[in-house]
Every structure is written in C-alpha cells, then in structure tokens.
Design a protein that fits this description.
Layout: E1 3-4, H1 8-14, H2 16-26, E2 34-42, H3 47-54, E3 61-66, E4 71-84, H4 89-103, E5 104-107, E6 118-123, E7 139-151, E8 154-163, H5 169-185, E9 201-204, H6 208-223, E10 229-240, H7 246-256, E11 261-266, E12 271-277, E13 280-285, E14 288-299, H8 304-316, H9 318-337, E15 343-344, E16 348-351, E17 355-365, H10 372-379, E18 387-388, H11 390-400, E19 411-416, E20 421-425, E21 429-433, E22 436-446, H12 451-469
Parallel strand pairs: 1-5, 2-5
Antiparallel strand pairs: 2-8, 3-4, 3-11, 4-7, 6-7, 6-19, 7-8, 9-10, 10-18, 10-22, 11-12, 12-21, 13-14, 13-20, 14-17, 15-17, 16-17, 19-20, 21-22
Helix pairs in contact: 4-10
Family: Belongs to the isochorismate synthase family.
Domain Chorismate-utilising enzyme C-terminal: 209-461
Organism: Gloeocapsopsis dulcis AAB1 = 1H9
C-alpha cells in the first residue's frame, strides 16, 4: 500500500489532487481499480454533527464515540463492503480488509491512529441470524467514502475514492471540495436540539413470566453441573407517536452515559442499532492490546452512603466475584492460546451513572503475526454475555430466548490499515425502526442467582436506555 506525503492545502487550492487522481486513473488496467485514500486536517467539528448533516438515509453509516477520551469517529457511505455469515465470517472479513489494503494509495496522511482509512465492522451474536427479516447481516465490513474523526481538538477528514477507467473525476473532485466546505461551516454547530418534548409511548415487556421460568430452569442446570453460567437477555418493545430522532438519542446517550462507548450503525434501509456500552472487547494502539474483564454488577445508590454500601457489597459478594473471575479466566486463556501474554492489572470498580461493575483491565504486547480480527473471533462471545461452558450456554440461549439477538452483545468497532482497532460489546443497546424500537438487556445467571433480583437488574438497564431514547 503506497503512501504519498503531501501538503493537503496544495491539493485543495492548486488542483493537484485532480491531477493526481487523473494519474491514478491512467494507471488502471481495463479490468482493475484503485482506492485513493486522502487525509486532511480540518477545523475542529463534532463528528456527530457531520454525520447528521451529510449522511443519507440510503447509505451505510457508523458512529463510534468514547467521550471520556475525547474521541469520536463517523463513517458515511461505503466505497467497498462485505456482507457475509457463517463460521468463517471473521476470517472472510480479514481477507476482505487485506484485499482492500492492496488497492489503497494513501495521500497526505501519517501513521497516527486518527488518520488513514478505517474499516467499520458489525458482527451478530451468532454466526447466522435466525429471523428471516432481521435488518442486519451476520457480518458487515465496509470502507467508508467519508470518515471524520476527532481526537481532542484535532479533526481529520478521510475520503476514500474508488478509481477505475469509468470514474468521473470532475464530479468526484467537486464532491470532495463541497464536503470540505460543508464541514468547515459546521465547526460552530452543536448537535443538541434541546428537543425534550414529551412523547407518548407504549412499552411492552413480553413474556416476563416465561423469562423468570428460564432463569429458574437455568439454575437447576447449573446445580446439576450442566453449565456454570448462562447470560439471558430480555427485550423491551417501545412504540412512539413519531419517528425516533436518532441524533437526539445519541446526544442524550453521550450526556447521560459519558463513561460508555456511544455507537450507532445504520443499514441504509431505515434501521439503526444504537447504544451506550460500558464493555470494551479489545483495543490495539501501536501493538499494545487492552481488554477488560467486566462482570458482576450492582445498582448505584441515591446517596453517597448508600452508594458506598452497594459498592462494598459488590466487592465482597461471593456470587458476583465468582461471575467476574469466570470472565477474567476465559479472556486470559484465550490470549495465551493466541500466543499473547496478558498482564492482569488490579481489580477495581467501573462506576457508571446507574450501575457499577467489577472490572479488571488486561494489557499485552501484540505479536506481529496476530490479526485484530483473530482476537475478536477468539474472544466472542465472552462469558460476560454468553456463559460457561460457552458452546453449551449458547445452545441453551437459543432454546430459551424467543427473539433474535442480532447485533446485541456482539462485536462492533473499527480497525485501520496499521493494525490499530477498537471493538466493543454491543450491550445496553436498541434496534430502532422509525417509530418502533426494541431495547435489549441481559443478566448473568450463576449459582446463587435470585430470579427476582436478576429481573430487577434487567429492568434497571432497560429503563436507563429508554430514558435516553425518548
């Protein structure tokens, strides 16, 4: 993948970009194409505002934000994409990324994480989706046409252009210039519309009695050593009297849950999968891998004294600590099997606005021969969202749950051309379809679990998400 240094403003004001694109087109064989990836630093702007302004309803898009680290990225439209399913979907995604990188010429960029082309990925929980009309494939990987990222006060616009003998370079170049002008005009805008009008809504939690029976049945199987843990999820269906405002919901999520990853994935057909996940699957920065064991939870208190009491109960709970250790052991064993030596940091609490978790960060130096998607494939699903033993628990999940998990509790994220990546687990999430939404939440069932308490935990998670959406 060639990298050509340049001064972006030279391209912008002296038309050298057009000349370079013309040169690339002339070098294309009759049946071949190239992808030119151009990076340009622009005025500081909110990527969510850019997404709202330039994304079209019929385009794939992806939004990903970690507010606590002052990082956000928006991806709009696809210049190349793969949609697939089955047990080989992660390896197929890896091959797709490699084939695209072979075609890419990078211009005006460095090897910093925020620059250069990124690939955006969403995988379903299971290898196949069982619901025929579920709106997202079991795996989607795309290279966006437009990518805007912000890290602190620095913003980078990346445009990826597919060039072949039939490409209209004049139109492509005009589109590039227009996008830069549009983005520069957005620098003073905020996404918040302050649209907090009350929306009449209906809520329907289906089959709560059956869900309680599933928990009770699971506890009997745990007692008989059929498995050690299972994570059962439950949906909340919501309908409103007008279409959901996607961007206002995202604005609400990042304000209410500043310590979580905020995400939104659009399939280009009117459906969006959004949420605020506290759970990172993996992140890689310059060959340094970070991941988390996040399991075991308790609500936050209404007063400092109550909050401290709940935190101490969580830290001392044999049941919650066992659930956490199961996840920690699974992750470290998976890493060792890939030839990665993990460094386990001290356990601590991860305290969010409405809930707190037992949390152990894990770090490692990544061998050069291990691809990020290999790690994602090995770790998914972790015991935090599936159970132990994993395969047995997943089979029972399909028996118990009468709805499609789809992207719920599945890997979502991005990877770049340098091997950097950030993947999260799509929990605390919702599938939005115009004026209807299905919200998802789950609870880990282990020996000692109380069905009523597990249901209360799920209700807590669902109501926190509902508050942001409407």
């Amino acid at each position: 993948m060639p990298v050509l240094p340049c001064r972006p403003n030279t391209f912008l004001y002296h038309n050298e970009l057009y000349q370079f694109l013309s040169h690339c087109q002339q070098n294309c064989a009759a049946d071949s194409s190239q992808i030119v990836s151009i990076s340009l630093e622009v005025e500081s702007v909110d990527p969510l505002v850019v997404l709202q302004e330039i994304a079209q309803p019929n385009q794939l898009s992806f939004y990903f934000e970690n507010k606590s680290n002052q990082q956000a990225i928006a991806a709009i439209d696809a210049v190349a994409q793969l949609q697939t399913c089955g047990v080989k979907r992660f390896s197929q995604a890896q091959k797709f990324v490699s084939s695209c990188l072979d075609k890419i010429i990078k211009v005006g960029t460095s090897n910093e994480v925020s620059t250069g082309p990124h690939f955006f990925c969403s995988f379903s929980f299971f290898n196949e989706t069982s619901q025929i009309d579920y709106p997202f494939p079991a795996a989607t990987i795309f290279l966006p046409r437009w990518q805007i990222s912000r890290c602190g006060d620095r913003c980078i616009l990346v445009a990826n252009f597919l060039i072949d003998n039939e490409t209209n370079l004049s139109k492509l170049y005009q589109d590039w210039c227009q996008k830069i002008r549009t983005i520069n005009l957005l620098k003073f805008q905020s996404n918040s519309t302050n649209n907090y009008n009350s929306i009449s809504r209906s809520q329907h939690i289906k089959n709560i009695k059956n869900f309680k029976q599933s928990i009770t049945s699971s506890l009997k199987l745990i007692e008989s050593n059929y498995f050690q843990k299972i994570v059962l999820a439950h949906p909340l269906d919501v309908s409103v009297d007008r279409p959901f405002d996607l961007f206002q919901s995202l604005e609400n999520l990042r304000n209410i849950h500043p310590g979580c990853y905020i995400f939104a994935i659009s399939n280009g057909k009117g459906q969006n999968f959004i949420g605020a996940s506290p759970e990172r699957l993996i992140s890689i920065n310059n060959q340094q891998l970070s991941t988390d064991a996040l399991a075991g939870s308790a609500p936050r208190g209404k007063t400092l004294a109550e909050d401290t009491k709940l935190a101490n109960c969580l830290l001392s709970s044999e049941k919650e600590r066992y659930e956490h250790c199961v996840v920690l052991d699974f992750i470290t064993q998976c890493l060792y099997q890939l030839g990665i030596v993990p460094q386990v940091l001290s356990p601590r609490l991860r305290q969010l606005s409405n809930i707190q978790h037992l949390w152990t960060p894990i770090q490692a130096t990544l061998p050069t021969n291990v691809h990020p998607l290999e790690i994602v494939a090995a770790l998914h699903p972790t015991p935090a969202v599936a159970g132990v033993s994993r395969d047995v628990a997943c089979t029972k999940i399909q028996d118990y749950e009468r709805f499609e998990r789809g992207l719920y509790a599945a890997p979502l994220g991005w990877l770049d051309d340098q091997g950097n990546c950030e993947f999260i687990v799509g929990i605390r999430s919702a599938l939005i379809d115009r004026d209807r939404a299905r919200l998802y939440a789950g609870a880990g069932i282990v020996a000692g679990s109380n069905p009523d308490r597990e249901i209360a935990e799920i209700q807590l998670k669902l109501q926190a998400l509902l508050k942001a959406l409407v």
